[in-house]
Amino acid sequence: MAVHSILILGGTTEARQLAEALRGMNRFGLELSLAGRTKAPVAQPVPVRVGGFGGAEGLADYLKANAFDLLIDATHPYAARISANAAKAAQISGVPLVALRRPGWERQAGDRWTEVESVEASVAALGREPRRAFLALGRQELLPFKAAPQHDYLVRSVDPVEPPLNLPNVRYLTARGPFNEADEQALLAESGIEVIVSKNSGGAASYGKIAAARALALQVIMIKRPVLPEVPSFQTVEALTAHVDQAFPPIQERGE
Q1: Which of 14, 83, 124, 237 is the most exposed place for a label (fewest CB within 10 A)?
Q2: Are the C-beta atoms of residues 7 and 196 closer than 8 Å to each other?
Q3: Residue 46 CB contacts under 8 Å (≥ 6 apart), including other chains
Q4: Are 118 and 93 in contact (CB under 8 A)?
Q5: What DSSP assignment string belongs to 85-119?
Q6: φ and ψ at 136, to 5 degrees?
Q7: pLDDT (tens digit per residue) in 89-110
Q8: Which helix (DSSP H) or strand (DSSP E) does residue 214 occupy?
């Protein structure tokens, strides 16, 4: 029986959950693509490909060469370049594209958010006076903070920051979420944190620090989401799974 092939651009918890849900239907050929930025990624339920494609054209060639029927962009909300390449590759190859985009966090009563456009802008928003700052960012986004050595930084990342930042006051934690509110409150209080720098990632896995900041009346410098291509999108794994189920119904064997 013919099998529809689906390429999932992943790296998020939702991408893994989506792959698991689609695998459970037992009628798709699935491949999950990871960028390879995490040294020890979480085990995935389907075959995995690691590394880049060589831009939009390279991705389009890969889609055509492997006869994929659908491309799913389930990357991180801040992976703007990958999402742009996915949209262009879909146009070039003619392979349909859908995206899984979890909604961002909404400001609630008691939140002390300062919204900025970029990591560089978040550095400026910290101000000139020394502060104790918790940087909840990826390793690749830390270099701009070298321009503000007066602050005392706490950096948490999945993998160690190598090489360490050339800053006089910086402490590192390596940990993988989810992080609950109570533990985040304890970490922030024990570390004397005065301000958090965060991306508006959305989802529950890393919301603990935002809730903890609210409870402790701490400022959060929130880096706004980038503008992503306009493609058919779904906010939950369940909604996207249902769409794929309808778009690619089971193929019935024809009788004689």
Answers
A1: 124
A2: no
A3: 8, 19, 20, 22, 23, 30, 31, 32
A4: no
A5: HHHHHHHHH---EEEE-PPPP---TT-EEEEESSH
A6: -100, 70
A7: 999 999 999 999 999 999 999 9
A8: helix 208-216
Residue 205 is which amino acid? A
Phi, psi of 60 (to 5 degrees): -60, -40
**CB of 178 closer than 8 Å to CB of 204:** yes
First-last CA distance in the chain:
15
CB atoms within 10 A of CB 233: 15
Residue 100 CB burial class (10 angstroms; 0-12, 13-18, ≥19): buried
**Chain length of the chain:** 256
Single-letter amino acid code for the residue at 235: Q
Of 113, 135, 147, 123, give the one whose Cα is nearest residue 191.
135
Task: Say if CB 14 and CB 70 are below 8 A apart.
Answer: no
pTM: 0.88
DSSP per residue, 234-255: ESSHHHHHHHHHHHSPPPPPP-
Tokens 């009788």 locate to 255
* Chain-centroid distance, C-alpha 176: 13
